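Input (structure):
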């Protein structure tokens, strides 16, 4: 079965898209399986089975809700709200950027969408006030990292389906680490602001604060509704996703009035394209994962890890070091669909809580989004700000270091991910 990965890596090296590379590798693995005959009909059947799950309806629904809110005037409302409550000290626009990303993450669950939406608004504003464009680009990228850790997180949904665990528990497992991550980014922004003597933000009177906060109330209520629905068990995960879409439409069309009926076809098309990419990868991963399972690769890896250590924390550290290396060269979603089918059984075999395991894996792979040389968020903000990639990569280092510290804390202290899931 090592030949399966060699074929897959060769196809990637030749420039084949990851989804097609997995399908071709799986087809060749089935075709030349020396151990026993496998009917090739297994390939399409497995692909359809990989996405024929009712729970996966959440993915296009949450993506659509995020698209509507991103284009429905929500971004500026959240930036105004963050400016009122975070924008006071030196360099405080950096904290405003992180705060806006924190709230946007509870709406879209997409790091790239948040980086584009916040970046287009905040980078020019920070540049005009003397921050330049390099540091603002770095802090926008760092702030966007929070989105896929907080609910509603698409990577958490994908992991939940692959590991057969509760989506609601996975959502709640990322909440506390996501808040701690954002708080750390704000502290770093404050330190940088003071050291570089960056301009302070505008001061607001209390009446202005309440007026602006009231204007952003409708936007802020969406993540609150999602969290209450999930934590209290009032709605299923799919029902919450559908309610998020309806709520986003009502707020954007009738409350803020920044979205028109004529804009909806383009929004539906954009959400459909984003959903199709994710679902195609999941479909392509199904036969590939089945062959990996058939090869009993997980058993061999478990034996190899057992020879090093049987301590669950040590094993989790080893797995996370491996994934950090993978995250440097692969984007999070492909890394999940390629490696998790082999890694999830290892965690189960060694008695690691699957929710804790999943939270650390998601946080780990998200760190790859800001890790050079393939950090996707660095490329995104570089495109938005027109700042060279390597300049942003240097500025991102303090934020990258804090993200790694948070990952270490979640590994060593499982309660950071499991505390809010108790009693669910």
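Output (sequence):
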């Amino acid at each position: 079965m090592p030949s399966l990965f060699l074929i897959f890596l060769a196809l990637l090296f030749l420039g084949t898209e990851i989804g097609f590379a997995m399908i071709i590798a799986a087809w060749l693995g089935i075709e030349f399986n020396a151990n026993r005959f496998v009917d090739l009909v297994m390939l399409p059947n497995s692909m359809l089975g990989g996405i024929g799950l009712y729970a996966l309806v959440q993915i296009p629904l949450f993506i659509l809700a995020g698209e509507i809110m991103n284009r429905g005037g929500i971004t500026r409302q959240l930036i105004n709200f963050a400016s009122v409550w975070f924008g006071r000290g030196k360099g405080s626009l950096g904290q405003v950027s992180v705060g806006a990303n924190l709230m946007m993450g509870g709406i879209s669950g997409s790091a790239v969408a948040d980086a584009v939406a916040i970046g287009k608004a905040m980078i020019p504003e920070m540049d005009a006030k003397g921050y330049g464009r390099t540091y603002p680009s770095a802090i926008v990228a760092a702030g966007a990292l929070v989105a896929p850790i907080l609910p509603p997180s698409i990577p958490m949904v994908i992991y939940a389906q692959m590991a057969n665990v509760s989506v609601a528990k996975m959502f709640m497992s990322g909440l506390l680490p996501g808040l701690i991550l954002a708080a750390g980014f704000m502290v770093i922004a404050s330190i940088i602001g003071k050291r570089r003597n960056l301009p302070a933000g505008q001061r607001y009177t209390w009446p202005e604060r309440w007026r602006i906060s009231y204007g952003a109330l409708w936007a802020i209520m969406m993540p609150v509704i999602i969290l209450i629905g999930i934590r209290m068990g009032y709605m299923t995960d799919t029902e919450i996703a559908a309610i998020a879409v309806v709520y986003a439409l009502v707020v954007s069309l009738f409350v803020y009035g920044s979205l028109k009926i004529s804009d909806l076809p383009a929004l539906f098309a954009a959400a459909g394209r984003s959903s199709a990419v994710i679902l195609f990868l999941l479909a392509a991963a199904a036969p590939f994962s089945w062959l990996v399972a058939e090869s009993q690769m997980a058993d061999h890896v478990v034996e190899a890890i057992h020879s090093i250590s049987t301590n669950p924390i040590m094993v989790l550290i080893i797995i996370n070091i491996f994934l950090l290396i993978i995250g440097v060269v692969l984007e999070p979603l492909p890394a999940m669909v390629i490696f998790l089918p082999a890694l999830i059984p290892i965690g189960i075999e060694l008695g690691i809580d699957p929710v804790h395991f999943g939270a650390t894996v998601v946080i780990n792979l998200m760190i790859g989004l800001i890790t050079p040389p393939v950090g996707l968020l660095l490329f995104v903000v570089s495109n938005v700000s027109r700042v060279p990639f390597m300049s942003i990569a240097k500025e991102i280092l303090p934020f990258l270091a804090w993200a790694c510290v948070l990952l270490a804390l979640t590994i060593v202290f499982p309660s950071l991910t499991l505390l809010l899931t108790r009693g669910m």
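Notes: The chain has one domain: 41-421. Residues 264-294 form the longest helix (31 residues).
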